[in-house]
Write a structure and sequence with these properties.
heterodimer; A: alpha/beta; Rossmann fold; six-stranded mixed sheet; 17 helices; 22 strands; B: mainly alpha; ABC transporter involved in vitamin B12 uptake, BtuC; two-stranded antiparallel ribbon; two-stranded antiparallel sheet; 14 helices
Chain lengths: 506, 331
C-alpha cells in the first residue's frame, strides 16, 4: 500500500447491465498534487469519478481514504469524508448572492435566525483565502460562468475538502479565465488539497497537472508523471491502436480528374464564435474527407455548421459551385446534404417506430407528407436495405429501439442513403458498436464514395479516419491545424498534429 | 409616468439592486395611482381610504403571502380560491352544528394545512406538475363545498359577529378591522421565515435551481412540500377572514380568487419561474389591485369589467418588465 496516497482506488469495476464501464481500474491521489484523468469519450472517466463521489456503487474493487476502506452511500457521505466535486455545469443558484451560494445550508445562525453579518464575514474570508475579489452580496447570476465556477470551487473547499474533483471545469472558459482558475487550483494544491482534474484540453493538462492516469475503453492504460510523458505518448495512450481485426480496406485514392469537378460542398472561412474558428474545407464527389481531433476539438461543431444545424457567423458555403446559406437542416437536405449525428439516441433514432418507418423517414420527408410512399414501395425499400446492410433482425416491423447500437446505426445510414445525397456527413458512425458492424459500416462508406458520393467522416478512432479518408482535416482546441492529403494521411502524422498542433512540427 | 420610470431606473442604476427593482416599480405605480385618484376625486386621498384598501383585501393579502412561497419555488397553487370557499362552508356548517367558535377556527386552519400537505406530497414525491395537482385540488375543494350545502349558510355566532364588527382605532378618525392586524402579522412572519431561516433560503434556492439545491445538500423535499402546507394554511386563514367579512359560508364565495392572488404576486414582482421575489411586493400587488377597484367605485358609472381590463394590461406590462430585467441581468 502506498503510504502517501490520500485516496487509493484499486481494482474498480463497474457494469451497467451488460456493458462493462470500468474494468479493474486503479487511481491514486496524493495530497498537494494535481492529478489529471485522461481518456476519450466513453473511456470511463465520468464513471470513475462517480464511484469516487458516491454517485455509483462499485461492483468490485476497493476505495481507501487515508488508508481506511470506505463505501459511500451517496454524494453527501463522500462530502462528509472530505471529497468535494465541482461539475462542468455550475451547480449553484444564480438568483442568490455569491455569499449565500458559498454558505447555503450551513449559514452561521444566531438564536435560530440566519446571521447575515456572519454570512458576509465568512464569505469574505473564504473568497479572500482564494484571492477572489468579489462582492459577496452581489447576485451570482451577474457574474461570468468562469467566476461562478470559481465560487463553486470556493464552496467546495469551504467544507474543509481534502480531495477536490474538477470535472471539465474549463470547457466553457476562455484563456484568461482558465488562467484565473489555474491560479486558484495552484493555491489549493499548495495548501495540501489533492485535486483530480478532468479535461480534454491537452495543453491545460500539461500546464496544471503533476501526474496523470489514462483510461481507454474502461480499462487503465497507465499512470504517468506529467514530466515524463510527451504529448505524443499521451495521445497514443488515449487513442490507442485497435488490433487489425477490422477489414483492410484497399482504397484507391480519389481520381485526380476529380479535382477538375467543382466540389460538392466548399466552405471558406466558415466559423462560429465559441464553437469553431474559421475553416476552409472542400469536398469533391467520390472523396472521403476525415475530420480528426480529440473530443471537444470542434469536430461535431464543424459538422453542424456544414449541415445548417447551427448558424455560422463567418464565412461562405458553396454547394456544387453555387453560393448558398444553409439556415436550417431543411435547406441542407434540399441541397442534397445528409447528416448522421453523433448522438444517435437523441437526434436520430425514432425508437418507437419500426425499422421500415425509420428507413423511409427521410425520403418521405423530402417528398412532403402529401405524397405518401406506397406501402409496397416501402416494403421493397426496407427489404432491399435490410439485406444490403445486413441489418439484424431482418424484420422490417421490428421496433428500432430493440435493435443493437450497430444495427440502429445501419438503419440511420439506410435512411440517408435512400435519399441519394450528394454529400454524406457521418459523425461518429461507429461509436459504441461491435467490431463486425464497424467493419460493415466502413465498407459501406468506402462503397458510397466509389459511387460518387462525397463523404465527411468524423470519428474519435484515428486509425479508422486515416484508413477511410482521402484527405484529413486535423482539428485541435476548436481550430483547424492542418489538412493532410494523399501520402501524408498517416496515423503517426495525424497524432503528431493533434498532440502538438502545427507549431512543434518535427 | 415616463419621467418617474426614468428616475426609478436612474436611481436603480446607482443604488437599488436589480432584484428590488420590480418591487420599487410596483410601489411607484401604487403611489402614482393613489395620487391620481386623489387629484381626480375629492376625499379620495384620505388615510381611511388607504386603510379601507387593507380592510377590504386583508384575505387577499394572506392568500398572496402563501402564493408567494409557492411561486418562489417555481410552483403554482390553483386551489387557494376553492379552499377559501371550503373554509367558509366548513366554518359556517360547524357553527350551525353548535361547535365552539375557537375550535372551528382551529379545525379550519389545520384542515387547510393538511390539504396543502397532501398536494405538496403528491407534487414532490410523485413528481407531478403543480398545475395539475392543484387544479385537481381546486375542483375537489369546490366540490366538497356543495357536499356540505348547496345554499348559503348565514353565521350568527357571537364571537364571529364581534370580530366582524370590531373596529380597531388607530388614533384620529382612523380605524382598521382585526383582519388587517392578522394579515399584518402573517406578512411579518412570512418575511422573517423567508429571509432569516434556512427553510426560507432553501425556498429561494429551489426556485433558482432545484438540481443545484439538491446537490448542495439542502432539504429540498421539506421546502417543496412545505410551501404547499403554508399556502394551504394561508388559504384556510384567508377563508376565516373572508368569513368575518361576509358572515356567511357559501359554495360560490371566492370564485377565481386564486387568479387574483397570482396576479397580485406577479404584479408584486415575483418571477413565475421561481427564485426571485418578495412578500412585500405581493402586498403592494394586492394594494394596486385594490386601488383599481376603489377608483372604479369612486367613478361610479364605470362597470367592474374595467378593473379586469386594467388588471390584464398591468399583468402584461409586469411580465414584460420582468423579462426585460432578466435579460439585462444576464447581460
Amino acid at each position: 500500500m502506498d503510504r502517501s496516497a490520500l485516496v487509493e482506488m484499486t481494482g474498480i469495476s463497474v457494469a451497467f447491465g451488460p456493458v462493462q464501464a470500468l474494468q479493474s481500474v486503479d487511481l491514486r491521489l496524493h495530497p498537494g498534487e494535481v492529478h489529471a484523468l485522461m481518456g476519450e469519450n466513453g473511456a470511463g472517466k465520468s464513471t470513475l469519478i462517480k464511484t469516487l463521489t458516491g454517485v455509483h456503487p462499485v461492483d468490485a474493487g476497493e476505495i481507501r481514504v487515508r488508508g481506511e476502506p470506505v463505501a459511500f452511500a451517496g454524494p453527501a457521505a463522500a462530502q462528509a469524508a472530505g471529497i468535494s466535486t465541482v461539475y462542468q455545469e455550475v451547480n449553484l443558484c444564480p438568483n442568490l448572492s455569491v455569499g449565500e451560494n458559498l454558505l447555503l445550508g450551513r449559514e452561521p445562525r444566531r438564536a435560530g435566525r440566519i446571521d447575515w453579518r456572519g454570512v458576509r464575514r465568512r464569505a469574505a474570508e473564504v473568497l479572500g483565502r482564494l484571492h477572489l475579489d468579489v462582492d459577496p452580496s452581489s447576485p451570482l447570476g451577474a457574474h461570468s460562468i468562469a467566476l461562478q465556477q470559481l465560487v463553486a470551487i470556493a464552496r467546495a473547499v469551504e467544507v474543509e475538502a481534502r480531495v477536490l474533483v474538477l470535472d471539465e471545469p474549463t470547457s466553457s472558459l476562455d484563456a484568461s479565465e482558465v488562467a484565473e482558475l489555474f491560479r486558484v487550483v495552484r493555491r489549493l494544491r499548495e495548501s495540501g488539497v489533492a485535486i483530480l482534474f478532468v479535461s480534454h484540453f491537452i495543453e491545460q493538462v500539461f500546464e496544471i497537472s503533476d501526474r496523470m492516469t489514462v483510461l481507454r475503453n474502461g480499462r487503465l492504460v497507465g499512470e504517468y508523471a506529467t514530466a515524463d510523458i510527451s504529448r505524443r505518448q499521451l495521445v497514443s495512450a488515449m487513442v490507442g491502436r485497435e488490433l487489425e481485426v477490422l477489414e483492410q480496406l484497399d482504397r484507391a485514392p480519389a481520381e485526380p480528374a476529380a479535382d477538375a469537378e467543382p466540389p460538392v460542398l466548399a466552405a471558406t472561412g466558415l466559423g462560429r464564435r465559441g464553437a469553431i474558428e474559421p475553416v476552409d474545407l472542400a469536398v469533391r464527389p467520390g472523396e472521403v474527407v476525415g475530420l480528426a481531433g480529440l473530443l471537444g476539438s470542434g469536430r461535431t461543431e464543424l459538422a453542424r455548421l456544414l449541415f445548417g444545424a447551427d448558424r455560422a457567423d463567418t464565412g461562405e458555403l458553396t454547394v456544387g459551385g453555387r453560393p448558398v446559406r444553409l439556415r436550417t437542416p431543411r435547406a441542407a437536405i434540399d441541397a442534397g446534404i445528409a447528416f448522421s449525428p453523433e448522438d444517435r439516441k437523441a437526434e436520430g433514432v425514432v425508437a418507437d417506430l419500426s425499422v421500415r418507418a425509420n428507413i423511409v423517414l427521410a425520403m418521405q420527408a423530402s417528398r412532403g407528407w402529401m405524397r405518401r410512399i406506397p406501402r409496397r414501395k416501402q416494403d421493397e425499400l426496407a427489404r432491399r436495405w435490410i439485406e444490403l446492410l445486413d441489418i439484424r433482425p431482418a424484420d422490417p416491423d421490428a421496433l428500432l429501439g430493440n435493435l443493437s447500437g450497430g444495427n440502429q446505426q445501419k438503419v440511420l445510414l439506410a435512411r440517408w442513403l435512400i435519399t441519394q445525397p450528394r454529400l454524406l456527413i457521418l459523425d461518429e458512425p461507429t461509436r459504441g458498436i461491435d467490431v463486425g458492424a464497424k467493419a460493415q459500416i466502413q465498407a459501406l462508406v468506402a462503397e458510397q464514395a466509389r459511387e460518387g458520393t462525397a463523404v465527411v467522416f468524423i470519428s474519435a478512432e484515428l486509425d479508422e479516419v486515416v484508413r477511410l479518408s482521402d484527405r484529413v482535416l486535423v482539428l485541435r482546441d476548436r481550430r483547424p491545424v492542418a489538412q493532410l492529403a494523399g501520402e501524408d494521411v498517416e496515423l503517426d502524422r495525424v497524432m503528431e498534429l493533434i498532440a502538438t498542433g502545427g507549431g512543434a512540427r518535427a | 409616468m415616463t419621467a418617474v420610470a426614468e428616475r426609478v431606473r436612474h436611481a436603480a442604476g446607482r443604488r437599488v439592486p436589480t432584484r428590488f427593482l420590480p418591487v420599487v416599480v410596483t410601489f411607484a405605480l401604487f403611489v402614482l395611482m393613489f395620487a391620481g385618484g386623489g387629484l381626480r376625486y375629492e376625499s379620495f386621498a384620505s388615510g381611511q381610504v388607504l386603510l379601507n384598501l387593507l380592510i377590504d383585501n386583508s384575505f387577499l393579502v394572506v392568500l398572496a403571502v402563501g402564493m408567494t412561497f409557492v411561486i418562489l419555488t417555481g410552483g403554482i397553487d390553483l386551489s387557494v380560491g376553492s379552499v377559501v370557499a371550503l373554509s367558509t362552508m366548513v366554518a359556517a356548517a360547524l357553527l350551525r352544528a353548535g361547535w365552539s367558535p375557537v375550535l372551528v377556527m382551529l379545525v379550519v386552519l389545520v384542515g387547510g394545512a393538511v390539504f396543502g400537505l397532501a398536494m405538496g406530497a403528491v407534487i414532490h414525491y410523485l413528481e407531478i406538475q403543480p398545475f395539475i395537482v392543484t387544479l385537481a385540488g381546486m375542483f375537489l375543494a369546490r366540490g366538497l363545498c356543495y357536499v356540505i350545502d348547496l345554499e348559503s349558510i348565514p353565521i350568527d355566532d357571537p364571537l364571529f359577529r364581534t370580530i366582524a364588527q370590531t373596529a380597531v382605532p388607530l388614533g384620529g378618525e382612523l380605524f382598521v378591522s382585526p383582519s388587517v392586524l392578522v394579515a399584518t402579522v402573517v406578512v411579518a412572519i412570512a418575511v422573517y421565515v423567508l429571509h432569516l431561516t434556512r427553510f426560507g433560503r432553501t425556498v429561494y434556492a429551489v426556485g433558482g435551481n432545484p438540481q443545484s439545491a439538491m446537490l448542495m445538500g439542502l432539504r429540498v423535499a421539506q421546502a417543496r412540500v412545505g410551501v404547499y402546507v403554508i399556502s394551504g394554511a394561508c388559504s384556510a386563514l384567508a377563508g376565516l377572514l373572508f368569513t368575518f367579512y361576509m358572515l356567511s359560508g357559501y359554495s360560490l364565495h371566492a370564485v377565481g380568487m386564486e387568479l387574483d392572488a397570482i396576479a397580485a404576486v406577479v404584479i408584486g414582482g415575483t418571477l413565475l419561474t421561481g427564485g426571485s421575489g418578495f412578500v412585500l411586493g405581493s402586498v403592494l400587488g394586492v394594494l394596486v389591485l385594490g386601488t383599481i377597484q376603489t377608483i372604479l367605485s369612486f367613478e361610479g358609472t364605470l362597470s367592474s369589467w374595467w378593473s379586469r381590463i386594467v388588471i390584464g394590461l398591468l399583468l402584461l406590462v409586469f411580465v414584460v418588465l420582468q423579462r426585460v430585467l432578466a435579460r439585462r441581468g444576464v447581460a
